[in-house]
Amino acid sequence: MPEIVVFAVEGRTAAEKRGLMKDITDAVVKNFGTAAENVTVQIVESPRDSKSKGGVPFSDR
Question: Which CATH code of 3.40.50.300, 3.90.930.12, 3.30.365.10, 3.30.429.10 fits the domain covering 3-50?
């Protein structure tokens, strides 16, 4: 039962997230030889002021 967790800054549309989850599921099915029903994908979103890169919050970029 593969489980994939994607960490991302908030701001993607529901359609974008749906497409990403479908593409990840398809890749796991293809490469792990499991059924799509066995694949769990979770997107964990962070507020822009709660995540930084290089010490600079995403809200300041």
Answer: 3.30.429.10
